[in-house]
Amino acid sequence: MIAPFTQPFMARALAELIVLGALAGTVGVLILLRRLAFMTDALTHTVFPGVAGGYLLAGEGGVFWGALAAGLLTAVLLTLLTRHRAVAEDTALAVLLTTFFATGVVLVSRESGYTTDLTAFLFGRILTVTGQQLTQTLAVAVVALVALVFLRRPLLARTFDPGGAEAAGHRIGLLDLAVNAIVALVVVASVRAVGTVLVIALLIVPAATARALSDRLAVIVPLAALLGATAGWAGLAVSYDASVRHGLRLASGGTVVLVLVGLHLIALVGRRLRLTRGTA
Amino acid sequence: MTAVDRAVTEAVLLGATGGLISVRIVLLRLPFFTLAMTHATFPGVVLAAVFGLDLYVGAGLFGVLVVAGVLALAHRREQDTTTAIGVVLSAGFALGVVLLSARNGFSKDLTAYTVGQILTVGDGDLAAVAATGVLVVALLGVAGRRLTFRAFDPDGYAAAGHRPAVIDVALLLTVEAVIVVAVPAVGAILAVAVLVTPAAIARLWTRRVPAMTAVAVAAGAGSGLAGVLLSSVYDVAAGGAVTVVAGAAFAFSLTVTTAWRALRGTVSVPRGT
């Protein structure tokens, strides 16, 4: 299970997945507590027109900045739309998600052979991660984690007691915007390497698994980060092994998700057993 | 019929059918469920392709499983339904992606399943959409009032002796049928646009269910028509164009109705006090 990672491209892929897994696991706990799964899914799709636009305007180097612009723009739009009274939150999210994603599809479909670009966006290109991308990911991870540590008290207050947080003088709208922006940052950092499909899973599944295993926040956060990183390593190893030894090509991103979902199911069964034993 | 004629017919029929059912989805607050159902239908489409089954049969059978899963989640007493839906959604999509990646030349197929290829629909696809449209009309004709009752007063509905589970299953199976016929035209990711956006537009203009349904059908069919025509003029992906037109119509409606309410609000305040 270690051998494949002696090759430089596999080592970089592993490093990227471990950083992203740990980061997404941590941020995922916030998503879990605030029940923002749908908003997260919307963000993973709305970044796409930024990726496409950035690529069309400035080539490979424009992708990160395009995604960053689109991610922050949607964070603002989502915060505003979900506070608009005339539209139910989930409806607003569904409309925003599909419209932004479709804009990206329209943009790339002007190019010939766009199917490859779309595939890269959905699956990512984890095996071609460059040193520069790794640096960008690390930078975003640091920004997001610093913001989380800095804002942890107001964010927790907002989560568990919105009325109390407002009374204590916290600005709810700004806090919501901060959460959306942090999630957007994680999506932007990961989307080029691992694709939309994997980002949403990394942000939701490890936190849900950790939540099934423990009720204490001090345990859930590190556990979610650990689970995210572990699944990244195991999924990569499995997909490498399948393609090299058995000639079966499995998309690495998808394999990582299936490992995560497998761990989640085990945790759910474990929880069920523990609960029934507890009541008996 | 030329390919563009067929595409226009497909888009208009699908838009009208989606518009009709979308009102129920929005009133029952099911957009996230619908999104999860579209993503979870994706592996069914891939499996049908891998085993050479008819797309509608494969995706339809898998879709029934999906509906069962969604209902099981909805009826669970534990609180975190959103998270559970999120897990189902990522699992379904990843499964489809992994299955597809094991085949050769998968990027082209993937595009067809995720964003659709409306220009290649055949007469069979048109017939399937038309049949689904009849199914939706039948459901609303038989149970339209009950669905409204269920949406606005779930407790009263159960107290009146109706069984909520029966009508939920009927509605979700119908939604799944619309998703399955929407996949060849607009793909699994954009199917949710057909199923939510028309009602989102209509709800901004009116609160009355019959009027909302009429506006939603018009919005669905209109954006289908405009999207396909725009896509053939500017040579862009049709599924994307249909969705962008619908999204633009939503943005326009939101701006106009918000401005209208603000204006009316400032006028009526002096009279009220």
Could you name the key traits of this structure?
heterodimer; A: 280 residues; mainly alpha; ABC transporter involved in vitamin B12 uptake, BtuC; 12 helices; globular; B: mainly alpha; disordered C terminus
Order of helices and strands of chain A: HHHHHHHHHHHH
Please state roughly what percent of the residues of chain B sit in beta strands, choosing from under 5%, 5-15%, 15-25%, 25-35%, 35-45% or over 45%. under 5%
Q: Which structural category fits the helices and strands of chain B? A: mainly alpha
From the structure provided, what is the oligomeric state, counting identical versus distinct chains?
Answer: heterodimer
Overall body shape of chain B: globular
- Percentage of residues in strands of chain A: under 5%
CATH class of chain B: Mainly Alpha
Query: Which regions of chain A contain 5 or more consecutive residues with pLDDT less than 50?
Result: none
Terminal CA distance of chain B reads 63 Å
CATH topology of chain A, anyone? Answer: ABC transporter involved in vitamin B12 uptake, BtuC
Q: If classified by CATH, what would the architecture of chain B be? A: Orthogonal Bundle
List segments of chain B where confidence is low: pLDDT < 50 over at least 5 consecutive residues.
268-273
